[in-house]
Amino acid sequence: MTTNTILLLLLSLVIAGGLSYFQYFFKAKSKSNVIILLAFLRFLAIFGLLVLLINPIISKNSLEITKTPLAIVVDNSSSITALKSDKKALEIYQKLVSKPALREKFEIQSYQFDNDFKTSDKFDFKGNQTNLDEAAKNLKSINKNLIFPTVIITDGNQTTGNDYVYRFDPVNKVYPLVVGDTTTFFDLKINQLNVNKYAFHKNKFPVEVFLQYAGTKAVNADFTITQGNSVVAKEKVSFSPSKKTASLNLLLPADKVGLQIYKANIQSVAKEKNSYNNIKNFAVEIIDQKSTIAIVSAINHPDIAALKRSIEVNAQRKVILFKPNQVNDLQDISVLVLYQPTTAFKAIFDNNKLAGTNKFIITGNNTDFNFLNQQQNNLIFKMSNQREDFLSEFHPDFNLFAIDNIGFENFPPLQNPFGTISTNGNVSVLLSSKIRNVATNAPLLAFAENQGKRTAFLLGENSWKWRLQSHVDNQSFEKYDVFIDKVVQYLASSDSKKSLVVTHESFYNSGEEIIINAQYFNKNYEFDEKARLTIGVVNAETKQTKNYDLLKGSNSFSANLEGLPAGKYNFTVKELNSNTSYASHFEILDFDIEKQFVNPDVLKLQQLALQTNGKAFFEDQADNLINTLLENKEYKSIEKNISTKTPIIDWIWLLILIAVLLTTEWFVRKYNGLL
Fold first, then answer.
1. How far apart are CA 352 and CA 338, in angstroms?
2. Please, what is the Cα angle at 604 between 600 and 605, to 5 degrees?
3. What contacts 42, CB < 8 A, 6 or more positions away?
4. Going from the N-terminus, what domains does the chain have, and what CATH number goes with each?
5. How far is CA 582 from the centre of its chain?
6. Residue 187 and residue 270: Cα distance in Å, rounded?
7. Which of 30, 251, 511, 570 could form a Cys-Cys staple with 128, CB 3.0–4.6 A?
8. What is the C-alpha to C-alpha distance for residues 131 and 117, in angstroms, rounded to an integer?
9. Which residues span the membrane (predicted)?
10. Residues near 632 by Cβ (< 8 Å), separated by ≥ 6?
11. Has residue 623 got a pLDDT over 90?
12. CB-side neighbour CA atoms (13 Å) of 371
């Protein structure tokens, strides 16, 4: 407090004393104990009020100790239970968090991870996926700019996400504590099975199988693929300590149309600790026809190869390439892709007026736009000879089919002649164009429909760069290829417009996300955001029914049916306002990826420890880990002097005290007849 404040407080004492004296002692006939008490109460009340008016500021200094965080992260996936290490993992966790020396040195942070990452000090080991990459990402953001150690209690067997070894911050030491029996057991395993989701009737489809062996002796095994009670493929496989892997390439007949379920199995005469990973179910949908996509171009361009690859990712599609003078019969063509049409395409346009094949027109610097204006009237082109680069802008209200924004705004520009492009009639725009971030209000990717015939327009060349950029952004071509597949699917279908459109897979693996997407359109075929969609799912065997609401996204509704057990299911999607419905079915295949392991992945966890300058420990070395953490001098507590200043007027209890003093004085005076 300042000198002026102290002087004011002394003056307050004098004033309070003077007023109390004047009230009770000046001209008083007697000075009884009651008068003295009343004078004292009045003195305290007046002094308190004067102190509040002066409002001195009280300063207080305190020491605050900031401890180094210690992140203890527990693997909550079911593989810990499968390796019979759940009790041991809990025991180790309790030992760490209850150690007084650790609690004194560190601020202990407790987390769990399976498919997700969250704060927790209770674990049930029921997670159906293991994602250590998610733990690495979250720890970086939680303790940003801090140097801290991390203890991970895990078996190291990751089933989803990026490789975790190099995802942790190398500045912060990671101490993996490996749980699970590291003894090598005899084990045969179907490590991976690759098969297309679709095959064509009366053809054969390939199945690629990767087998793995753990053991110390040579062994012979039988690998079979069965469908029901029938064996459709069988192979003998040999393993030894020097040959621990094998790959098989098999061709299976596609004899029946529809969803076909198969079971792959590897076994030998020897007994195994884990036989669950000997079996893997898979499914293939056999379709009875293949749509043919014809790409017609008079020039060579990388766009054509990129488009062909994207379309043929879907096994239902077959792409054939033609020059304009080679196309005579359009009878078997599902979609006609016309790349940069010129007058050389006149015969194709004339033939297609009779065939009525849906078209995908792609323009560019070699396109004859006067010719194109003569052949269609959906878009009207007034183009110059000047070339221009056009960026794209996604329209979230596009509603012809469900499509997500896959990062179109970040894609490289397409090149097309500069000019004016106007729409005519029923044209829906998915992407509009921009020139150096200035909107042109002209379409870049648009769709038109006249009398049941559909046409798509992509107005610019170099879309091959889009596919490459999508791969750079997502480490995969999948998102871009799905986008192209949806465009082709829309063009390949000539069905009349439906008010309720539902998209789903025919089968899912246990543990996967089971997402049902739906769109509801009003009478003008506009996406109805106010629709009320529900889905009822019925287990075909048990007849148990579950109901869900579909939640609205940007341009569709969706429901996540996570948690359903393996089996066959029938479902019905309903729009409650109009009572429109859609019914179909799917199957969940029995496959628990967390039960595929017989040992922890010690090598991976040791690599992680090495990469962060930490150290890996085994489940019987918890005490060694504790000593390592306690002896490390990098992690020291920081003392901070915290100075707090509090105005007296903020002390609510002082106001209460003054009220109590005045009330007490009034009652004493009342009791003694002095009022």
1. 12
2. 75
3. 19, 20, 23, 24, 665
4. 3-58+643-671 (no CATH), 68-183+599-631 (3.40.50.410), 187-287 (2.60.40.10), 291-492 (3.40.50.880), 500-593 (2.60.40.10)
5. 28
6. 9
7. 511
8. 8
9. 6-26, 33-54, 651-668
10. 149, 173
11. yes
12. 16
The residues, any chain, with a CB within 8 Å of residue 375's CB and separated by 6 or more, are 341, 345, 346, 349
For residue 116, report the phi and psi dihedrals to the nearest 5 degrees. -115, 180
- Kindly state the average pLDDT of the residues 260-287: 87
pLDDT tens-digit map of 15-40:
877 777 777 776 666 667 777 777 78
Residue 392, SS3 per DSSP: strand
Who contacts 656 (Cβ-Cβ below 8 Å, separation ≥6)?
Answer: none
CA angle 247, 252, 253 (to 5 degrees): 170
Q: Kindly tell me the sign of the dihedral angle through the C-alpha atoms of 589, 592, 596, 602.
A: positive
Strand runs (DSSP E) across 268-349, as ranges?
279-287, 291-297, 317-322, 335-339
- Which contiguous run of DSSP H or E holds residue 176? strand 174-178
CA distance 380 to 282: 50
pLDDT tens column, 115-167:
889 999 999 998 888 899 999 999 988 888 888 999 999 999 888 888 899 99
Query: Which helix (H) or strand (E) covers residue 398, if one does?
Result: none
- Give the angle subtended at the CA of 603 by the CAs of 598 and 607, to the nearest 5°: 145
**Cα(94)–Cα(92) distance, integer angstroms:** 6
Contact 264, 193 (CB under 8 A): yes
The SS3 call for residue 258 is strand
The one-letter amino acid code at 230 reads S
β partners of residue 269: none
For 400, the enclosing helix (H) or strand (E) is none
Of residues 394, 464, 455, 402, the one with CA closest to residue 429: 394
167: tokens are 């995802």
- Tell me the C-alpha distance between 283 and 90, whole Å: 38
